[in-house]
Amino acid sequence: MRRRESVLEWMWNIVQRGERRIIRVMVLASVLLIVMQLSAVRDPLQFYMAVASKVEAPPLDLPSFSKSVKTWQVTLKATPPAPILVIQNGQVMGSLAKGELQIMVQSGQIQLDGIGVSQTVRVQVLKKDSQLLEPRQNQTVVLQGDIQNLTVRP
């Protein structure tokens, strides 16, 4: 004959069954979280856009910032001609080894790298776009084996 459970045993069994269910729900939630995180790591922007399209209004079209880059023409002359590198934004725009260099520049700084040149060299702005305030027409920079900067400002 089956023994009758006491109220305390009955309550303890209910708590254990509830505990098992809670553990199962937590394991399923953890697996779901891992799957969501892995899909976000693969392509975070695409993942965000997919989730946002379901939750929010349609995604906004963002303007392209690359269209706003404007360039101007500047002509530099080195006296005497020397292998001075003209650098802007980490890119070598050219060298003044032939004495004169015509380049297209953006707003910001132009570096004149005269490191390794043993003689004193004068770099003059021969021509510039009329829209530029700086560098000034006929502005001269003296290099003595160092690096000097020219500001480009519309």
Which structural category do the helix and sheet elements fall into?
alpha+beta
What is the end-to-end distance? 100 Å
The residue ranges in which pLDDT falls below 50 over 5 or more consecutive positions are: none
Shape: rod-shaped
* Number of DSSP strand runs: 8
Tell me the number of structural domains: 2
What is the string of SSEs from the N terminus onward? HHEEEEEEEE
- Overall residue-averaged pLDDT value: 85
Summed up, what is this model?
With 154 residues, this protein is of the alpha+beta class. Helices cover 31% and strands 32% of the residues. A hairpin with a 2-residue loop joins strand 2 and strand 3 (91-95).
Can you offer a commentary on this structure?
By secondary structure, the protein is of the alpha+beta class. The chain has two domains: 7-55; 65-152, no CATH class. 31% of the residues lie in helices and 32% in strands. It contains two helices and eight strands, in the order H-H-E-E-E-E-E-E-E-E. The chain has helices at 7-42, 44-55; strands at residues 71-79, 85-88, 91-95, 100-106, 108-113, 121-128, 140-143, 147-152. The strands form two sheets. A four-stranded antiparallel sheet has the order 4-1-6-7, with no helix packed on it. Helix 1 (7-42) packs across helix 2. The mean pLDDT is 85.
Reconstruct the topology from this structure.
Layout: H1 7-42, H2 44-55, E1 71-79, E2 85-88, E3 91-95, E4 100-106, E5 108-113, E6 121-128, E7 140-143, E8 147-152
Antiparallel strand pairs: 1-4, 1-6, 2-3, 2-5, 5-8, 6-7
Helix pairs in contact: 1-2
